[in-house]
Amino acid sequence: MYLHGTSKINDKGHLEIGGVDSTELAQRYGTPLYVMDEALVRRRCREFVDAFQATGLKFQVAYASKALCVMAMCRIVEQEGLSLDVVSDGELYTALQAGFPPERIHFHGNNKTPMEIEMALDAGIGCFVVDNLTELRLLNAIAGEKKKQVPILLRITPGVEAHTHEYISTGQIDSKFGFDLGNGAAFEAVHEASQSAHVRLLGIHSHIGSQIFEVEGFSLAAEKMASFASRVRDELQIVFPVINLGGGFGVRYVEGDTPLPMSTYVEAIAEAVKTQFHAVSYPMPEIWIEPGRSIVGDAGTTLYTVGTSKDIPGVRKYVAVDGGMTDNPRPALYQSEYEAMLANRANDAADEQVSIAGKCCESGDMLIWDVQLPAVNSGDILAVASTGAYNYAMASNYNRIRRPALVFVKDGESDLAVKRETHEDLVRNDVVPERMKQKETAR
Ligand SMILES: Cc1ncc(COP(=O)(O)O)c(C=O)c1O
Ligand SMILES: N[C@@H](CCCC[NH3+])C(=O)O
């Protein structure tokens, strides 16, 4: 398994993260356990900010909190000076509870409800990224009732297909998100927004997909945005002060993944925006981006305890852990691949090929197909790398399995950021109607 960030093998032959022995973490907090390498999260935040600062351009880096939205994460992002992108009342609530400055919050989503819009307006968030005309009209009406004028970006579908899994590719024409550039919808939206008294149009937004390992898609999106902005200026006399190119920067999950340094993405985006907007004699806009996965993805490791195994001679050996698709649904959803190691026997020769199964009543509940490990015993601690993004965020209670705890580790210390769910948590919202309380149904 590739050792990310501060991960290393200590002299006991154990995996250590943030200076803390992972077997001690497993002992202290139980398993499954999400472990976040705080130094690596902060390093990633700084890589984006430093790279933009070096360009001398105006910018905003907003962490896409959908990747991992917990209060501790909002605090780190605040301390690192980033903005925050939320897509629901729940993410907004988490950010506000964590004391995140509302003026640095951007609200995304293709179906914001009236309640969510009101909540965000009342909180005084920095900007809405408007996805469609229904939302534009609703937002304008609600902001009008509140006698406010709210900054917005319009989400454009640029018609750029990023090379990634089709379920996480969003910039193509056939997408549920945004105003289409090609069929005139984007232009009409700009026109309508400019006539709407209670919104202030800051600019346009595009997001071409996720887990992208090349810069060409971003350059192409910048080119399309510049040509659209220029047409809008010429025909409507509107100039956008902001261009948002979304997130999607790839991280390493397994060998063969080839993420670029974050500075390479930023430099390419800055260069493309400069060149393309200069080419149409446009005043240089402020550049905004929204990385999610690339801030937290490779900083996360999940620790599991090995339980049972089943050897089918000539077929395969299944090794089952105490978690699975409930804490990491990505392999089941996207055929995502992960690397693993035995955290308690990191130096032992990996001479057995096994497949890692979860504990759900579901044949598709597999975490890893075919991984080389030392001969695995019940009680071993299995570490799976690069689980920081879209794992806790997408975890479920399927089979009424309790969601794991999440800790941040740094400089030899570990801090609980999310408690493990209890049995009481599982039934907290259940209600048994009175008529179901009697012992048997009278027939
Ligand atoms: C609009 C928008 N912005 C930002 C992101 C974050 O993407 P990633 O986590 O790949 O950086 C997403 C998710 O793909 C998104 O839909
Ligand atoms: N949840 C997806 C990415 C979706 C990104 C949000 N638009 C993943 O785990 O890869």
Automatic annotation (TrEMBL):
N6-(pyridoxal phosphate)lysine modified-residue sites:
K66
Taxonomy, superkingdom: Bacteria
Swiss-Prot/TrEMBL keywords:
Amino-acid biosynthesis, Decarboxylase, Lyase, Lysine biosynthesis, Pyridoxal phosphate
> What InterPro entries does the record point to?
Ala_racemase/Decarboxylase_C, DAP_deCOOHase_LysA, De-COase2_N, Orn/DAP/Arg_de-COase, PLP-binding_barrel
Q: Where is the active site?
A: C361 (proton donor)
- Which residues are pyridoxal 5'-phosphate-binding? G248, E290, P291, G292, R293, Y390
Domain Orn/DAP/Arg decarboxylase 2 N-terminal per the UniProt entry, residue ranges: 40-296
Q: In which pathway does it act?
A: Amino-acid biosynthesis; L-lysine biosynthesis via DAP pathway; L-lysine from DL-2,6-diaminopimelate: step 1/1
Which positions in this protein are listed as binding substrate?
R293, R330, Y334, E362, Y390
A Gene Ontology molecular function term for this protein is: pyridoxal phosphate binding
Functional summary from the UniProt entry: Specifically catalyzes the decarboxylation of meso-diaminopimelate (meso-DAP) to L-lysine.
Assembly with partners or alone: Homodimer.
What protein am I looking at?
Diaminopimelate decarboxylase
